[in-house]
Amino acid sequence: MNSDILEVIYTEEQIAKIVERLAKEVHHDYADTVPLVVCVLKGAVIFMTDFVRQYEGTLEMDFMDVSSYNGTESSGEVRIIKDLDASVKNRDVILLEDIVDTGATLKALTSLFRHRGANSVRIVSLFDKPSGRRVDISADYFGVTVPDKFIVGYGLDYNERYRNLPYIGVLKPEVYS
Q1: Which family does it belong to (predicted)?
Q2: Is 13-148 assigned to CATH 3.30.200.20?
Q3: What's the Rg (C-alpha) of the chain?
Q4: Which residue, 119, 133, 74, 64, is CA-closest to 95?
Q5: If you ran DSSP here, which 8-state letter would residue 57 be given?
Q6: The whole model's pTM is what?
Q7: Domain residues of the chain, as ranges?
Q8: Which entry of 101, 128, 140, 148 is annotated as an active-site residue?
Q9: Is residue 101 annotated as part of the catalytic site, yes or no?
Q10: For 40-78, how does the pLDDT look when each residue is reduced to its tens digit (9 = 90+)?
Q11: Mind listing the pLDDT tens digit for each residue in 103-151?
Q12: pLDDT at 38
């Protein structure tokens, strides 16, 4: 797998510091509540694991699996594959995502949670790729901005591969072209 990476842009150590900072920022705003942290599967599961271990307060977790990508391109259609087990009604929801790229998935999910009666919905994203944005949405908390390149690792994938890399790297174009 490492031979398919053009360059490493965030090391395992750098990511750990970013996650720790995000957990502290979010906890500061939710210290007096018990938020429902929703992990968007599969990409955010590694981020979720590290985030909740760094979060110093009480929280509840749930998982949602949605799809909007075919290979390297967004289809524009957001499909729910696995819905939440918990109700969001009258809850403060923290939507945890690996990357805000087109924004279509997050816009659809925030609208859905508001429709279901959530008190609040905030987005925490490890990475932000504003160059890919197709809808008007941004994370309330985000780690770092990433370049307009195809990145993998730390949960981010290409055709279900590379998620287990402990760093974020740029995938060589010949791998996906």
Answers
A1: Belongs to the purine/pyrimidine phosphoribosyltransferase family.
A2: no
A3: 16
A4: 64
A5: S
A6: 0.91
A7: 13-148
A8: 101
A9: yes
A10: 999 999 999 999 999 999 999 999 998 775 555 555 677
A11: 888 999 999 999 999 999 999 999 999 988 889 999 999 999 999 999 9
A12: 98
